[in-house]
Amino acid sequence: MTHEAGEPKKAGVVGRRDVLSTIGFWIATVASAAILGIPSVRFAAGKSLEQVTEHWVPIGSPDKLTPGDFTSVVYSFRLKDAWREVKKEGLIYVRSAPRGGSSGEFLALSGVCTHLGCNVRWSKDASRFACPCHSGLYDADGAVISGPPPKPLRQLETRVTDGVLEAHI
Amino acid sequence: MQKIFRYPVPAHAHHNPLFSMGSLLMVLFVVQALTGSLMAFYYDPSPDGAYSSVDYMQFILPFGWLVRGVHHWAASAMVVIVVLHLLRTYLYGAYKKPRELTWLVGVVLLLITVSFGFTGYLLPWDQKGYWATQVGTEIAGSVPAIGSALRNLMRGGEDMGIATLTRFYSVHMLFLPGAFMVIVLGHLALMRRHGLAPALVRRGHGPEKTVPFYPTHLAIEAGIALVVIIGLVVAANLVPAPLDLRADPTDTTFVPRPDWYFLFYFQLLTYFPGGLEAIGTVAIPLFFFGSLVLLPFVDRRAERRPWRKPITSSAFVLYAVAVIVLTIRGSG
């Protein structure tokens, strides 16, 4: 209830109006926050948690690969990224006729280190991949030899379509 | 803290929703800051990307229509509420001693509020925003002596382009919100220092009854804020925020129009062509804002009842009628 200015409220006495006002204030405030807050969180998340679309990217003619040795291939394709069309690029290592395997088969490895995403380098002499960031080492099949990488290099599915070798990224 | 939350609110203010307009403005500012910041997650402040990013938000992202729609409608609501707040203060004579500085700070906040609207309108880089800003900056360019420099400063060059968009974005997102927050704190501090103006008509004898700011008065204000927020969400759903065609500087068919709260001024300028242009672009705005600034120093009598102040009350009626008539004519 209203009280005269200057009339002190008794200490410790909480009127019914105070309780109802407090409850009403917090209900209105929480409701306002929820009405805007919940859709806002969903809006902010946007499409960031959606699955990345997969693509088959052309690598080139299989004849151009050096048998038994990795060839580094920079692929690029156009992609819708939110509201823009952008060029997406990446690095793949491809080898034909893997050790012990029959000809016509290919091994395609992602060139991205599984530790923190740096691009690895293939050394033919050492027959291994080395990551320049934290010295992670992978063998010719992409398995981790030493260093911090937690997983082997990602192996990519391949196919030949109309004479063009493609990798699935 | 006790002083802040147990502040005694006079009963005449507690029972009159017009006395909650100030608080509602702060709630609307928070709503704008939230929705604006969220849109900044995706907004691309370049002529190449701005339109597409707004289109993406509006039609692709979950609840994008809601975030952008609430931002659009809350902008108009802020203008309406700031005018109601100003009118209530004016009519109740709450600009008089000792509240002159509170009034002046309020006039600055009014300018900031309309500046938000002016700078935000361009950001989608659609036909409406582009051409309204083209016209708005040309109006600035018609100020005698300094017009060209003023226009070029606003645009970041002679023509509208990327520098126009980025500086309008920066002013809208950084300078104006920062200034608003600092100045509002000053406005609140002054308001608390001098208290609310007493009721125009006293009933009975003895001191006026009061209620504590928290929780009693704040519960009412929170209720009003909730109703307004629900209204904004409903409005965003029923009438989505507009997005015109992509800006086209070569278009000869588009008829520029500013947002509704600038229509009266846009229409006013049609009556001052050629050599008389400076009257519309400089003299009249200066007179209008000058009259607001000088009001507490011109009207110094203690009398606050509007029916006992024929000059200021008539001026209010004249201004209101002029703005309404010009707005209607400008929208035609």
Task: Give the SSE layout.
The complex is a heterodimer of chains A (169) and B (332).
Chain A: E1 3-4, H1 16-45, E2 56-60, E3 71-81, E4 84-96, E5 106-110, E6 121-123, E7 128-130, E8 137-138, E9 144-146, E10 155-156, E11 158-161, E12 164-168
Antiparallel strand pairs in A: 2-12, 3-4, 4-5, 5-10, 6-7, 7-8, 8-9, 11-12
Chain B: H1 2-5, E1 8-10, H2 11-14, H3 21-40, H4 50-59, H5 64-91, H6 100-121, H7 127-141, H8 147-155, H9 162-194, E2 209-212, H10 213-238, H11 263-268, H12 277-298, H13 310-331
Antiparallel strand pairs in B: 1-2
Helix pairs in contact in B: 3-5, 4-5, 5-6, 5-10, 6-9, 6-12, 7-8
Task: Tell me what the structure shows.
The complex is a heterodimer of chains A (169) and B (332). With 169 residues, chain A is α+β, with helices and mostly antiparallel strands. Chain A folds into two domains: 1-50; 56-168, 3-layer Sandwich (Rieske Iron-sulfur Protein), CATH 2.102.10.10. Chain A has one helix at 16-45; strands at residues 3-4, 56-60, 71-81, 84-96, 106-110, 121-123, 128-130, 137-138, 144-146, 155-156, 158-161, 164-168. In chain A, the strands form three sheets. Chain A has a four-stranded antiparallel beta sheet with strand order 3-4-5-10, with no helix packed on it. In chain A, strands 6-7-8-9 form a four-stranded antiparallel beta sheet, with no helix packed on it. In chain A, strands 2-12-11 form a three-stranded antiparallel beta sheet, with no helix packed on it. The mean pLDDT of chain B is 91. Helices cover 67% and strands 2% of the residues of chain B. Chain B is mostly helical. Chain B is globular and about 70 Å long. Chain B has a single domain, classed as Cytochrome Bc1 Complex, Chain C (Up-down Bundle). Chain B has a two-stranded antiparallel ribbon with strand order 1-2. At the A-B interface, strand 1 and helix 1 of A face helix 3, helix 4, helix 5, strand 2 and helix 10 of B. Strand 1 of chain A pairs antiparallel with strand 2 (209-212) of chain B.
